[in-house]
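Hi support team,

I'm opening this ticket because the web form for multi-chain structure prediction keeps timing out on my end. I have pasted the exact lines I submitted so you can reproduce it. The total is 692 residues across two entries, so I didn't expect it to be a heavy job. Is there a limit I'm missing, or should I split the entries? Thanks in advance, R.K.
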Amino acid sequence: MPERIIDIGEFGLIRRIRDLLNREGRRSERVTLGIGDDTASFLPRPGYELLVTCDCLVEGRHYLPGRITPLHLGRRAMTLNISDIGAMGGKPLFALISIGLKAEALVQDIEEIYRGFLWELNPFGASIIGGNLTQSGNGMFIDITLIGEVEQGKGVRRSGARPGDVILVTGYLGQAAAGLKLLLQSPDDLSLRKHPLVKIYNAPSHRAYFGAAIAEAGLATAMIDTSDGFLGDLGHVCTESNVGAVLMKEKLPVSEALREAALDFHKDPYDFFLGESDDYELIITCQPDKVTLLCSLATRLGFPVPLTEIGRITAEAGNMIIIHTDGSRHSVNPSGWDHFRLKEED
Amino acid sequence: MPERIIDIGEFGLIRRIRDLLNREGRRSERVTLGIGDDTASFLPRPGYELLVTCDCLVEGRHYLPGRITPLHLGRRAMTLNISDIGAMGGKPLFALISIGLKAEALVQDIEEIYRGFLWELNPFGASIIGGNLTQSGNGMFIDITLIGEVEQGKGVRRSGARPGDVILVTGYLGQAAAGLKLLLQSPDDLSLRKHPLVKIYNAPSHRAYFGAAIAEAGLATAMIDTSDGFLGDLGHVCTESNVGAVLMKEKLPVSEALREAALDFHKDPYDFFLGESDDYELIITCQPDKVTLLCSLATRLGFPVPLTEIGRITAEAGNMIIIHTDGSRHSVNPSGWDHFRLKEED
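Hello R.K., no limit was hit. The queue was backed up. Here is the completed structure from your submission:
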């Protein structure tokens, strides 16, 4: 019979996780103390700022139990955090994992979740150095604190966009939202797992390598990941930079898969693109003379990053405008993801 | 009508918290970016190791809603983490706060929880630099990551105890457990709030100042806080140091208040002392010739710390023994707190 957590206890589970991390994870020489004491400790690197972020996945809120494999759950939770470090131009170093678990949960599922964490951390040589296991009768949650670093003074903030800057975006937005809609419409259709949009929803990726390369080259004035939805996050950049934005609708990179799905849903694909979605792409602003360099950088990484110029930063603080193909102008709100607001029905 | 979170939304709540922190909190010059971007960032100090820990409070598990004020809830959550940093000999610097909230929660209660965090952080000049707010339909949780620092090479671990070392403990253990038992026995008796044991349960304190002073003076071979219960944590020291322990029962410092309460409960006060309890005291091991210096250090802080010598470290790995007043020896297990194990009834 598969072991449950209640069978091996908290300290038994900690030992199992420690063994798994020793076997399958990386261990940086800068970690002076890992899991197993009151705190972990590490030596910082002179000349580098430390970046630190935390993001949480709650059962029933950010994922549906049984609709995601434990491995993918771990990958997703870590990807959210890596994306935040990458959006500052940093690289992840160390993670602390806090998990609330039901006592009946299977030990092998928890181990798979940790494999998901390592899947995302190992390519960076980053490691899990601490954490906390808590019994939670009310459903599971995974809260990750991720520590990264960036060369001193090279971190890219939300607040640096200036009027006249070009706005660019990586990849294709709205695809994860469409994938989720497909899943919710046909919960029992297992063949959906192979649908490209569902795959993008189930296993999101981040642009942290590109973000770090941009920061190192000093090419961006502002950067943010799209975790609050495209307009929500462009809105954050506008607010923090005290600027506005004009977007060219025809330039927004809508993928063929999203266009087809939207047709089936009788929806406008741009609603998916602009609204709430679980894509972890980057919105980048830069001076116009840096666009060519940015594009060339996007093709020179291990795998090319789609990068599209979609608009300009303006001096009209807080004002976001979309210009349609016919030249008409339409004001838009940063109606991104706000966890606590009452939502209108679709 | 008092505002609920759902009335002001996630970003409204973040603004309110940011304002409160700017008004009532400290801001270190080493923080290069605080709350409001994808990540926070700070500059490490050369010659210091960074310490990092996380601990979580779950509603219904670690506290009962309505039985603790929001201010005390905040203080308690932060105290657990400060205690862990202090047990390594470090001082807290920066906190990240992840909270799962119900949408109906009152904004003023959340602000009070943050005041509780600051109550504990401000004396250290430590600050809240990041976090995450999540809607949780399943009850609240507070997960804190606390970053501290200790001079390089001066951190005190669990693994340094050596045979012949003296074992000391700060304060009086078991009091919080007795306070909780009082509360659970008479849930409606409001006068209990003034009972000294209930006060100790409701507003635990830490020994981080003493821990840091011990580390700076290089006096301890091992140190741990008693968050897993006295025997549980002494057991961790024995396991990680590969040693055993002999305790003199008559030397264990049982407070008068605990002795009286135990009499009323028809229980042995040592059961409270040795078992699971929410006291955040320190277990310290040191070489015999360091005891006098340690005791003198304990009286020289702003407020004197009760410090009691209770036993010796032995070479018998994993073997913990209590010597009773009549000279008889009794083997004990590290039956400390294990969140997931099935518990025997009292």
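A quick check on our side: Residues 71 and 112 of chain A are 5 Å apart (CA to CA). Let us know if the file doesn't open in your viewer.
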